[in-house]
Amino acid sequence: MRSDVIHTLLVANRGEIACRIFRTCRDLGITTVAVYSDADADALHVREADLAVRLPGAAPADTYLRGDLVVAAARAAGADAVHPGYGFLSENAAFAAAVQDAGLVWVGPPVKAIELMASKTRAKELMAGAGVPLLAPVDPATAGPDDLPLLLKAAAGGGGRGMRIVRELDALPGELLAAAAEAASAFGDGEVFAEPYVERGRHVEVQVMADAHDTVWALGTRDCSLQRRHQKVIEEAPAPGLDEALRTRLHEAAVAAARAVGYRGAGTVEFLVSAEGRPYFLEMNTRLQVEHPVTEAVFGLDLVALQLRVAEGEPLPSPESPQPSGHAVEARLYAEDPARDWQPQTGALLTLEVPEGPGLRLDTGYTGGDTIGVHYDPMIAKVIAHAPTRTEAVRLLARALERARVHGPVTNRDLLVRSLRHPDFAAARLDTGFYDRHLADLTAPGAGDPATAALAATLAEAVRGAEAVRGAEAVRPTRPGGPAPARFGAWRNVPSQPQRKRYRSEPDGTEHEVAYRTPRTGVPEPYETPGTRVLTATPDRVTLEVDGVTRHFTITTHADRVHVDAADASYTFTALPRFTDPATHTAPGSLLAPMPGTVVRLAEGLVAGVTVEAGQPLIWLEAMKMEHRILAPASGTLTALHAAPGHQVEVGALLAVVQEDPAATPVPVPVPEETA
Q1: Measuring CA to CA, which residue among 491, 493, 499, 571 is closest to residue 528?
Q2: Pairing verdict, β 570-576 and 347-348
Q3: What's the confidence (pLDDT) of residue 674?
Q4: What are the tens digits of pLDDT across the range 350-365?
Q5: Dist. CA 95–CA 412, nearest whole Å
Q6: For residue 494, what pLDDT is reported?
Q7: One fold for both 8-107 and 201-442?
Q8: Using the 8-state DSSP alphabet, how is residue 134 labeled?
Q9: Rounded CA separation 130/284 (Å)
């Protein structure tokens, strides 16, 4: 068996997975090479790499998906191996072949294994022959009422793209067309297949690791049932609540799947487990998974190091896999607003600080000061907790997220904390419909105290202002030999009138008005706020006694945004002017871009002057690997259309205007299940 010692590794990826692979390379003494788009020129993975090669352009199709450019970059940097990470070209058989044809080591499975598993339809046929349990496919052309509900899936892709749930036969033709169009756009292949949709099913997967010496490890199970838009949010290992017989069956099926395709390296076999405990093969991911850290924590392994070892031709350390220990949970921190249809967010990430401690791990591609752009996935970081028991791991992770300081775009941090503390999650009552049932409760205004946080922000600002005045007076010039300039007015023994400060809470928009005054002591104090006493106040830290309990607040100000971090919650405010600017108002019926993105298509026949109905999809935007529909806010006439396919738009850009018809009958707005 040939052994290829890797000295210089190019990672054909970006963000946190590139940084994570570099970390192992540093431990092993391997030189690292990054590739980067123009949008990523200052990204963390570029800063951490030993060498970096530019891929001109910004869009993934022009950069990270250009296999020819990546191979050329590896040659230019003197790399002798390529690791694909996950996403982008990681499951592209042609790219793997091109890497090997260039004389480079491919840190991944054999090309043939990628080809066999690339199409979900072909993979299911292969797995049936290997005895792996499957859901019976459904021919959409002959589907009847007894086949409902159906799940439509793209044969060539993943990540939730091209997936649709169909509950009514009348909707099937239209959903097939929509799924095929999205699949063709995302993966270059419009093939779509249908299978029964399993209500309240669990997403359970098995990590496998195989070498070229006939050893295949099944490294336990993971539960990834908490998903939004068919994309994972919280993952854990081992999957809780499985009996030993089911766990053994899943392990055996995963090993059979790996052996059926002659697999080598790290891979994941995914299953759907019904409420009755019956497992069904979904797909095999021929790459490292985003959620691999929970398996690493439980088994005490470095899966990237094992990938490199196998790629060099070495056997796995032992014929049998190591024994697991404890429980691990991972949460994906996204720049997105769960309360607004999971809209991705962009902008400057001003602060990213996650508590450190035993059992905690942070994988990220960002640091404070970086910018979250529009071109790529909105994931900021993965936070992982490992502890002896599931209860302890969940508690540790929830507290770490709660104490994290994340300033900048809106994130799903509060949703993650509430999810981890939800009674159903605590009791391991898990299925892929978790957020369909609980999202409204999980995104409702919390039990925190934003009014007191706004008070802390006000007091810190008052101290900052007073210090600025004193500083200005200290440097005020005086006439040579003469007295210092006198201040206007004189001290009078009357109470000072309160000053007022207004804030808008983000992202819910609640406004808070705080009254305070500054007595002769110079320490600002709340006005007519019984039960609250100021203990200390500085420009960046305020300590209050509220109803006998001492509470600490850390205040960070960036322009008109104020971030207040407390022990049990974090708050973001926008400081408001005393008077509203009339120029900020928009015309009724204006459709504004909810995020920066690209207009990918318009409703058929959409031109100014046409009649539209409330809830009708008019414009499709694509941003950060997701497609978003802009709906008509009311029934009426489209009086203006400023969007066109291919246009790049910024957040708040005017896309169209709908003039409401007062005589129109209100139409209920349907919420598509795939984006609910």
Answers
A1: 499
A2: unpaired
A3: 34
A4: 999 999 999 999 999 9
A5: 34
A6: 47
A7: no
A8: B
A9: 13
Return the closest-CA partner of residue 410 out of 247, 570, 613, 175.
570
Token pair listed for 406: 């994340």
**Low-confidence residues in the chain, pLDDT < 70:** 1-3, 157-160, 185-188, 472-496, 579-585, 624-625, 664-676
- The topology under which CATH files domain 8-107 is Rossmann fold (3.40.50)
Taking Cα atoms as reference points, which of 219, 337, 215 lies closest to residue 289?
Answer: 219
How many Å is the maximal CA-CA distance in the chain? 101
CA distance 491 to 657: 58
Phi and psi angles of residue 324, each rounded to the nearest 5 degrees, phi first:
-75, 160
Contact predicate 242/430, CB 8 Å: no
Asked if omega into 530 is within 30° of 0 (cis), the reply is: no
pLDDT at 404: 97
C-alpha span between 558 and 438 (Å, rounded): 34
C-alpha–C-alpha distance, residues 64 and 76, integer Å? 16
Would you tell me which CATH number, out of the four given (2.60.40.10, 1.10.10.10, 1.10.10.60, 3.30.1490.20), belongs to the domain 137-196?
Answer: 3.30.1490.20
d(CA 259, CA 262): 5
CB burial class (10 A; 0-12, 13-18, 19+) of residue 243?
Answer: exposed
Fold designation for 586-675: OB fold (Dihydrolipoamide Acetyltransferase, E2P) (2.40.50)
- Beta-carbon count within 10 A of 32 CB: 25
Residues 118-158 have pLDDT tens digits of 877 788 888 888 788 888 889 998 999 988 999 998 877 66
- Amino acid of residue 372: I
Find where tokens 């014929």 sit: 319
Residue 63: what residue type? T
Sign of CA dihedral 226, 230, 233, 236: positive
pLDDT at 584: 54
Using the structure block, give the residue that is written with the tokens 């540093």.
26
Q: Which sequence spans correspond to the domains of the chain?
A: 8-107, 137-196, 201-442, 450-468+498-576, 586-675
Residue 364 CB partners (closer than 8 Å, separation 6+): 16, 19, 44, 352, 380, 381, 382
Burial label, 259 (beta-carbon count in 10 A; 0-12, 13-18, 19+): middle
Q: Which residues pair with 647 in a beta bridge?
A: none
Q: Which two tokens stand for residue 168?
A: 């009514």
R_g of the chain, CA atoms, integer Å: 28
User: 3-class DSSP state for residue 97?
Assistant: helix
Bridge partners of residue 571, in order along the sequence: 564
- Assess contact for 310 and 211: CB atoms under 8 A: yes
**Structure tokens that stand for 605 in this block:** 């026949």
Q: What is the residue-wise DSSP string for 14-49?
A: -HHHHHHHHHHHHHHT-EEEEEEEGGGTT-HHHHHS
User: Which DSSP helix (H) or strand (E) runs through 571?
Assistant: strand 570-576
pLDDT at 671: 35
Can you read off the two tokens belonging to residue 43?
Answer: 């990204």
Chain centroid to CA 516: 39
Q: What pTM, to 2 d.p., does this model score?
A: 0.85
Q: What's the CATH fold of domain 201-442?
A: D-amino Acid Aminotransferase; Chain A, domain 1 (3.30.470)
Q: What is the DSSP letter of 643?
A: -
Q: Between the CA atoms of 382, 248, 245 and 292, what dihedral angle is there, to the nearest 10 degrees?
A: 0
Q: What are phi and psi of 395, to 5 degrees?
A: -60, -45
Sign of the Cα pseudo-torsion (189, 190, 193, 198, in order): positive
Measure the CA–CA gap between 617 and 602, rounded to whole angstroms.
8
Burial track 550-574 (b if 16+ CB lie within 10 A, e otherwise): ebebbbbbeeebbbbbbeebbbbbe
Count the residues in the chain: 676
- pLDDT for res 486: 37
